[in-house]
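Hi all, posting the design record for the shared folder.

TITLE: backbone redesign
STEP: 1 of 1
STRUCTURE INPUT:
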């Protein structure tokens, strides 16, 4: 069964500073979701300027409140100003493997787990958390999937003018090891088109209107100022993920994006990776 566990109390929850939550009470479980409840006089998701989940000191999730909320709202979620979710699952997946693939199995070498949240400009904030957990999936069908964690990496990039440019997608280059990509989220007000190449073959070629239309027909909810490239838009995670690892046969991979004007963008990637890489 799914168990709901209250997180340890958050420390240093102040108007401006870095709050932290020791997640040691989740060790021994497979973590499926983490819920953060925002409270106090004034604490909004936009005031959470950095959210980092660290396992054995390594960052496995790197985002902020607004962008995390936008990515989860796309999947989609019902809006709630006081609740923020870190989701390791895929609610719209069409198989058990697809649903549970990416859950954080803490029995696979994780000795410490910590959530660090930077708060800026709040007033008398409060922060509480809960987690949905389950016993690790140990069946043979999960053998290859079990070590893979739904991780999030991010990078910013300056776009100097209107035009088409290659994007510096974290860990996309197979020469550096590559990764398994579920989604590439480009936070941009000016991005109008995208092309994704693998081994020189154009595998995704969209403009914003068609990209968002097809997402809607699969039950997704496009978000303002977010160009989402979703390799598993139909929910078939195990058959659709965009794999740029050399072991998959990938030798080159690139995302080209078209912009209507200059801006600074943030790219967040949702990947499936074991703890021991990156």
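Okay, here is what came back for every position:
SEQUENCE:
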């Amino acid at each position: 069964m799914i168990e709901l566990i209250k997180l340890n109390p958050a420390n240093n929850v102040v108007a401006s500073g870095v709050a932290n939550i020791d997640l040691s009470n989740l060790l021994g479980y497979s973590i499926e979701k983490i819920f953060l409840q925002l409270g106090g006089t004034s604490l909004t998701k936009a005031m959470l300027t950095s959210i980092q989940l660290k396992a054995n000191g390594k960052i496995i999730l790197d985002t902020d409140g607004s962008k995390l909320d936008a990515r989860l709202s796309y999947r989609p979620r019902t809006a709630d100003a006081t609740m923020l979710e870190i989701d390791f699952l895929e609610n719209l997946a069409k198989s058990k493997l697809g649903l549970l693939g990416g859950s954080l199995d803490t029995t696979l070498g994780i000795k410490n787990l910590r959530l660090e949240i930077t708060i800026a400009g709040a007033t008398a904030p409060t922060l509480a958390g809960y987690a949905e957990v389950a016993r690790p999936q140990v069946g043979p069908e999960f053998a290859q999937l079990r070590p893979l964690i739904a991780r999030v990496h991010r990078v910013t990039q300056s776009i100097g003018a209107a035009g088409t440019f290659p994007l510096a997608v974290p860990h996309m280059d197979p020469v550096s090891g590559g990764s398994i990509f579920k989604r590439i989220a480009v936070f941009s007000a000016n991005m109008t088109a995208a092309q994704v190449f693998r081994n020189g073959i154009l595998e995704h070629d969209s403009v914003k209107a068609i990209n968002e239309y097809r997402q809607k027909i699969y039950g997704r909810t496009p978000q303002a100022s977010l160009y989402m490239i979703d390799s598993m838009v139909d929910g078939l995670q195990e058959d659709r993920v965009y794999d740029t690892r050399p072991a998959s046969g990938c030798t080159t991979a690139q995302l080209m994006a078209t912009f209507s004007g200059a801006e600074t963008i943030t790219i967040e990637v949702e990947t499936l990776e074991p703890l021991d890489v990156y």
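COMMENT: The mean pLDDT is 96.
Let me know if anyone wants the other runs.
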